[in-house]
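Re: your question about L-ascorbate oxidase

S., sorry for the slow reply, the queue was backed up all week. Below is exactly what I fed in.
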Amino acid sequence: MSRLVTWLLCVFAVMVSAEAGVRRYKWDVKYEFKSPDCYRKLAITINGKTPGPTILARQGDTVIVEVTNGLATENLAIHWHGIRQIGSPWSDGTEGVTQCPILPGDTFTYRFIVDRPGTYLYHAHYGMQREAGLYGSIRVLLPDGVAEPFTYDYDRSIILNDWYHASTYEQAAGLSSIPFVWVGEPQSLLIQGKGKFDCSKLATPSSNPTACNTTNPECLPYMMTVVPSKTYRLRISSVTALSALSFQIQGHNMTVVEADGHYVEPIVVQNLFIYSGETYSVLIKIDQEPSRNYWITSNIVGRNATATTPPGLAILNYYPNHPKRVPPTDPPAGPIWNDIAPRLAQSVAIKARQGYVHTPPPKSDRAIVLLNTQNKIDGYNRWSVNNVSFTLPHTPYLTALKENLHHVFDQHPPPDRLHDFTTYDIYGVVNNTNATSSNAIYRLKFNSTVDIILQNANTMTVNNSETHPWHLHGHDFWVLGYGTGKFDAENDPKKYNLANPIMKNTVAVHPYGWTALRFSHFYMGMGVVFEEGVEKVGKIPSEIMGCGETKAFKRP
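Result:
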């Protein structure tokens, strides 16, 4: 989907060793009828459930997940979002980049080390399967005896999602059609896999009473039972297909302490703005009136969905109240959907925690400006970067690069910046007639330091600029700064935060704004691939092969 932005990166690092435990999981992936918001539809499940099981591990553990693809007519791949895959790039789970997909009926085993504690997630990385229900949480704890810089009594994971009633096949067909058919706003917002759709609003009411049933126990609100006077760590993550969200707990402040696996200088918020692919840890004190329960809510921001998508609702259940006791007051109203200022302010406020600052290199070896544009290419609506819409080759990049199969993808690298960037009107509907598609990649020198400036512009709709989350596979990056308007290469770098920037793997680019990143060593085409250190990769397992020209390297 157009707003599901994935920044693909092949990172090839040296193997590290760790004496730690092994966590084994065996997953059967298949379609089942589910009613997460009371509307019955096919969803992709893991061992019969969506969201899938939470992966629990400790820093240094090896995680082994044996995945059997029970989707009769679809390929499959699973990405371990935020896991750096040091020594195991072939387990990143990005079909077309690091592996061939898992074919229907086949079993594939992912093996990787969780080298850093924190909050992460996993999701499907083939087509649009993620929004069909294949996602879940990853919780990596510190080794026994090692303390964190904050205290809490209990640890919980909450994953947020938006939910569509149309199948991913219908949506993909519309997005790839002439004329273009937009998917619209989601029907529901899910909190830990549960929501509530108003069945009376069905466009074409069904004669089947099970098609939409608000009494179905599957769509009872998610209830989190808490003990008064205790402190809870909530690990919040988002896997939305389209929506930027505001997360709020009625009557309770939240203290942000972790973002994407890195400790944050604590900030107190009433609502947490969270973008697809981001993870946060917040602390809440159970210190309100104990005789009642409280609402947990999610609301869409950045898009005018007030009339189409109701808030996500869950219940904070104060023990010993009955968990189904409805809070006596209305849910809190969400933020104004188009008020960018508080969202930008929160992004800027997220800094590395004192005592846990990893200082970035003082300067970079290369700067790449990536301008998000929306284009017509051969009559199709496509998202592009520097007027190039990204496509995947039939042969995954990892094997192609390792085996010197240079002919399987375009060898002409994309531009480091649009040639007319300084004069480009980011506020207007620009006729980008020179837009094209390509599967070319950026080549980076190993151990070099690279700045990436992500620039948002107007879409093909007048007075419209979207919020875009960008994710970097296999690396964390320093977030050096945010700005409004067009990036000024002469003056804006002087404002970079080089003292205590947070490190993240996913970051938002706000409407008509820019975000600057530094690092060392996607349905409709918005994405790029970077290649570095291929010579450091060991022998590639044959299990990831079998598509394109990798068939020649597949061993039985």
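The radius of gyration is 23 Å. The first strand starts at residue 8 and ends at 11.

Happy to talk it through on Thursday.
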